[in-house]
Specification:
The structure is a homodimer.
Chain A (H helix, E strand, L loop, with lengths): L5 H15 L4 H8 L3 H8 L7 H11 L3 H13 L4
Helix pairs in contact in A: 1-5, 2-3, 2-4
Chain lengths: ~80, ~80
C-alpha cells in the first residue's frame, strides 16, 4: 500500500470539509478563485497543491488552514481513517 | 506595501524555527531531502512551496506542520510581526 503523502491526506480532508459545508466543487472553486477541474484533481489526490492554494481553499471554507492541516496530519497517522 | 501571502508568512516562520533550533540551512536541507539553494529561496519568499515540501520541512524540524501553519497565519494577521 502506498504511503499516505501529506497531499493525499489533505485531499481527504478537503473533500470531507467541503461536503460537511454542503458546498459543490463548483461553488468552492469559485470562492477560492480556482478552476473546478483543478479542485476535482486535488480531491482525487492528483495534485500536490502549493501553500498559497491550500490557504485559498481554507479561506473558501471559512476555516483556518492550520485546522485542515492538523486534520490531515491526524489522517496520515491513522493511515487515512 | 505588498500583501503578506501565505508563502511569505511561512518563509518567516521557517527561518525563525530553523534558527531557534540552531540548524544551518545546509543541515536542514539534508534532513528534509531538499537542496540548500531551494531552502534559501524559500526563506527569502522566492518560492511558494508545495504541501508535501512544507511537510518535509516540518518533519526536518521535528514539529507538526499544523503548528508552523498556525504561526504563519498569526504572522499574516499581524502583518508579519
Amino acid at each position: 500500500m502506498r504511503r499516505l503523502e501529506m497531499s493525499d491526506a489533505f485531499a481527504l480532508v478537503l473533500k470531507r470539509s467541503r461536503q460537511a459545508k454542503g458546498l459543490s466543487q463548483e461553488l468552492r472553486a469559485e470562492k477560492a478563485n480556482l478552476h473546478p477541474t483543478y479542485i476535482g484533481l486535488l480531491e482525487r489526490s492528483l495534485r500536490n497543491p502549493s501553500l498559497n492554494v491550500t490557504k485559498a481553499l481554507a479561506n473558501a471554507l471559512g476555516v483556518p488552514l492550520a485546522r485542515l492541516i492538523a486534520e490531515a496530519e491526524a489522517a496520515q497517522k491513522g493511515k487515512g481513517r
